[in-house]
């Protein structure tokens, strides 16, 4: 009888362990992630809407048809939030935390290992982004239009981008960085035949007049000297 009890206890323990192991694995798989993809969107343009389960593609165009490049070095803060009196506020207590990330060379920043909940994504200030994206809320997990649960989402901030300022101060009749072609007749300081970069003429009108003046300065005194010498020679013959 005692042996039967031991066998039954062993079977019960095995049953509990077999049920508990999948539950543990399922609990470990409930962590989520937010992937932030930042593009260089020119001022006045925007990015088309993208589903939150859509991974970034190799080529992305703006609403105006421009091919957009991704932007490195943009910082973001992800803050865990909670609902309080019909409002969403930052989490308090032991479960409160925030994570700051920066986009890599591919313009991507990933915040992983997030428990289910509400999160606020905040774009930090950047010298080439005059107006950062307003903070927005993300719920993890979330469902798409087809009712499919999304645990790893992708977000695409749409803040405008401006290039770095060119340190060269261009005169009013010049445009573009040095060496780049501007409007007809105008060019940067290291360009070729712009109006402000024209080389001095050597055989133009001024050069031709200069040559005439030079010839005149040589020939006229020479002619006078020859004339005087001839007169002197004639006078000497007469005296003899």
Q: Brief description of this entry?
A:
The chain is an alpha+beta fold.
User: Number of DSSP strands?
Assistant: 14
Q: What's the total helix number?
A: 2
Q: Largest sheet, described in full?
A: 5 strands, antiparallel
Given the helix and strand composition, which structural class is it?
A: alpha+beta
Report the order of strands and helices: HEEEEEEEEEEEEEEH
Q: Which parts are unreliable, with pLDDT below 50 for 5 consecutive residues or more?
A: 20-27, 166-170, 176-203, 234-240
In round numbers, the mean pLDDT is 76
Strand content: 25-35%
| Backbone CA Rg | 41 Å
**Distance between the ends:** 174 Å
Task: Report what the structure shows.
- It contains 2 helices and 14 strands, in the order H-E-E-E-E-E-E-E-E-E-E-E-E-E-E-H.
- With 240 residues, the chain is an alpha+beta fold.
- The strands form 5 sheets. Strands 5, 6, 7, 9 and 10 form a 5-stranded antiparallel β-sheet that branches.
- Strand 5 (75-84) and strand 6 (87-90) form a beta hairpin.
- It is rod-shaped.
- The N and C termini lie far apart (174 Å).
Set down the secondary structure blueprint.
Elements: H1 2-28, E1 32-37, E2 41-42, E3 60-61, E4 67-68, E5 75-84, E6 87-90, E7 98-102, E8 108-114, E9 117-123, E10 136-140, E11 142-143, E12 149-150, E13 152-155, E14 160-161, H2 205-239
Parallel strand pairs: 1-13, 2-14
Antiparallel strand pairs: 1-8, 3-4, 5-6, 5-7, 5-9, 9-10, 11-12
């Amino acid at each position: 009888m005692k042996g039967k009890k031991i066998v039954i206890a062993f079977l019960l323990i095995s049953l509990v362990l077999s049920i508990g192991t999948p539950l543990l694995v399922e609990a470990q798989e409930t962590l989520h992630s937010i992937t932030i993809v930042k593009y260089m969107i020119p001022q006045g343009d925007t990015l088309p809407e993208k589903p939150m389960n859509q991974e970034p593609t190799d080529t992305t165009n703006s609403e105006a048809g421009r091919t957009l490049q991704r932007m490195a070095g943009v910082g973001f803060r992800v803050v865990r939030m909670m609902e309080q009196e019909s409002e969403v506020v930052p989490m308090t207590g032991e479960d409160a935390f925030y994570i700051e990330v920066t986009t890599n060379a591919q313009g991507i920043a990933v915040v992983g290992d997030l428990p289910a909940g509400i999160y606020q994504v905040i774009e930090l200030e950047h010298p080439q982004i005059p107006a950062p994206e307003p903070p927005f809320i993300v719920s993890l997990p979330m469902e798409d239009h087809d009712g499919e649960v999304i645990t790893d989402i992708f977000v695409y901030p749409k803040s405008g981008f401006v290039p770095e300022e060119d340190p060269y101060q261009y005169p009013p009749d010049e445009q573009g960085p040095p060496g780049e072609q501007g409007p007809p007749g105008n060019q940067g300081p290291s360009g070729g035949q712009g109006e402000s970069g024209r080389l001095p003429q050597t055989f133009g009108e001024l050069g031709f007049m200069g040559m005439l003046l030079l010839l005149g300065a040589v020939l006229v005194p020479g002619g006078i000297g020859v004339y005087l010498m001839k007169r002197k020679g004639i006078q000497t013959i007469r005296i003899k």
